[in-house]
Amino acid sequence: MFFSRSKPLVGLDIGTSSVKAAVLKPHRKGKGFTLQNLGIEPLPPEVIVEGAIMDSGPIIDAINRVCEVARIKSNEVAVSLSGHSVIVKRVSIPSMSNEELAESIYWEAEQYIPFDVDDVNLDYQVLGDSADGDSMEVLLVAVKKDKINDYTSVITQAGRIPLVVDVDVFAVQNAFEVNYGLAPNQTTALVNVGAAVTNVSVISGGHSRFWRDLSMGGNNYTEAIQRDMGVSFETAEAAKCGKSQDEIPAEELTPILETVNNEMVTEIQKTIDFFLSSHSDEQLDKIVLAGGGSRLESLPGALGERFGCKVEHLNPFEAITVDERAFPKEALAEMAPAAVVAVGLAIRKGGDR
């Protein structure tokens, strides 16, 4: 979001439960990409809590391992952030020149950002003129400096150079757009279910219109199983992923998952309804799921039943050339949900905003 270069970067997604890395080689004349490198390395529990880095050592080790295993030679990376320290807002401000906007943007941003503007890195992009002609639509993105410093520090300590700091919701949208394009007559909700944070964004009329992060994800299911069944994190995680566990009978697991499913779907519904309430002429056509947490078998059905629309998974390699000798189809399909943000970051190139 903030800075970039023209050469391909390593898309590095430092999530709560794992570190993902991807490198895409652009085709000549900018027509598509080939998957060059891809890897995922798990992180121990409690290393990152609510987006805050509690122990940098295991993260540094995971970055080095994923680059070694995936044979990634480049040390220049793009990383993205999400959660309470990240604010993304579409705002309307009085029309002004680019020079005037550059001078006044911090003052304008103070009205919309719940942090001291001196404590954030701020970026913005003019989206166009408002319908009244007297104002313009501007996309504001603010991230707390201490969060950026925490994440760029572990990358630097791992011997890499953080050249791009982006936002998860935009990385997901990049992955969606490069693989599926943007339908001008469709309203689509992208729901990226991570371990601790779920990113929701709405694309309508071929444009990104709404963004929000929810403080819940795949860990909510794991923690509920731990709490109700009295088992370890590892056992609960395996049961959540559909791996049979002797300590957890299926008939006792199902109601636990259904309870958390209902909580998750309700929060997603509140978020999407908030958008639709201010756009009464629109209706939701499709939900596209991404993220490691989206692999829970019962989630797509629960969302489809609640919203009454089509629910499908985002394949971040749908339109990307893949050598199946290097990346076997079954292994790639297993990694795909968790790789969406990393792929979206790997798409970045010089001059992007």
Report on this model:
This protein has 353 residues and is of the alpha/beta class. The protein has one domain: ATPase, nucleotide binding domain (Nucleotidyltransferase, domain 5), CATH 3.30.420. The protein contains nine helices and 15 strands. The protein has a five-stranded mixed beta sheet with strand order 3-2-1-6-10, sandwiched between helices. A five-stranded mixed beta sheet has the order 13-12-11-14-15, sandwiched between helices. It has a three-stranded antiparallel beta sheet with strand order 7-9-8. Helix 4 crosses helix 9, helix 5 (218-229) crosses helix 6 and helix 7 (250-277) crosses helix 8. Mean pLDDT is 91; it is low at 1-5.
Write the layout of secondary structure elements.
Elements: E1 10-14, E2 18-26, E3 33-42, E4 48-49, E5 52-53, H1 56-69, E6 76-81, E7 86-94, H2 98-109, E8 120-129, E9 135-144, H3 145-157, E10 161-167, H4 168-180, E11 187-193, E12 198-204, E13 207-214, H5 218-229, H6 233-240, H7 250-277, E14 286-290, H8 298-307, E15 310-313, H9 329-346
Parallel strand pairs: 1-6, 6-10, 11-14, 14-15
Antiparallel strand pairs: 1-2, 2-3, 4-5, 7-9, 8-9, 11-12, 12-13
